[in-house]
Amino acid sequence: AQKVTQAQTEISVVEKEDVTLDCVYETRDTTYYLFWYKQPPSGELVFLIRRNSFDEQNEISGRYSWNFQKSTSSFNFTITASQVVDSAVYFCALVTGANNLFFGTGTRLTVIP
Amino acid sequence: DTGVSQDPRHKITKRGQNVTFRCDPISEHNRLYWYRQTLGQGPEFLTYFQNEAQLEKSRLLSDRFSAERPKGSFSTLEIQRTEQGDSAMYLCASSLSGGRNEKLFFGSGTQLSVL
Predict the structure, then answer these.
(1) Residue A70: what are its φ and ψ, rounded to 5°?
(2) Do A43 and B108 touch (CB under 8 A)?
(3) Residue of A nearest to B104 (CA)
(4) Which of A70, B18, B95, B114 lies most in the core, judged by the most C-beta atoms within 10 Å?
(5) B56-97 pLDDT per residue, tens
(6) A46 in contact with chain B, both atoms CB, cutoff 8 A
């Protein structure tokens, strides 16, 4: 069975603060893919990143960075110098060989101006 | 606009009625997915198509639900004899052909309210 846990239901930060969204996953597969999607108030999920299980290199894209650690089954997402436009629900998701994209319950981020 | 489009954006219906939603994927995408999202939850997989072939259905998709993609382009999702538990956001997504690990492009969804 697979599982994606996003323990933080809601987070509020003041603009320009850094914030980390946690994601812990479970799978017995050795080959899998991890994703982050953003869902703004408009409702349309937007792809942010995909990582395969064999690539543990951390990644940085502008103000966004991701920390993948297989040893702790975590794939955390950090936003540096948060902005009001970052306010959204963020979903971590997992794909395995036998299963389609499986989402966590999401973390609602509110950035206060 | 060349993204995934869904119609209608909102649908209110009475229990027992039938409803149909439409999804137009990105034109060159071969795979089309339907997901359902309830309040406070992540999207849950319902079914997907590779071109016109429906290749997988979730156990969440009861026999009251049917999806089609007749010409491998747009898709429809029909719910017969709606129940209050069907109230949710129905999301459509598409991707280029490939494995499950392809990134998905989502539409804005159809919000269904069953009274």
Answers:
(1) -65, -30
(2) yes
(3) A47
(4) B95
(5) 888 888 899 999 999 889 999 999 999 999 999 999 999 987
(6) yes
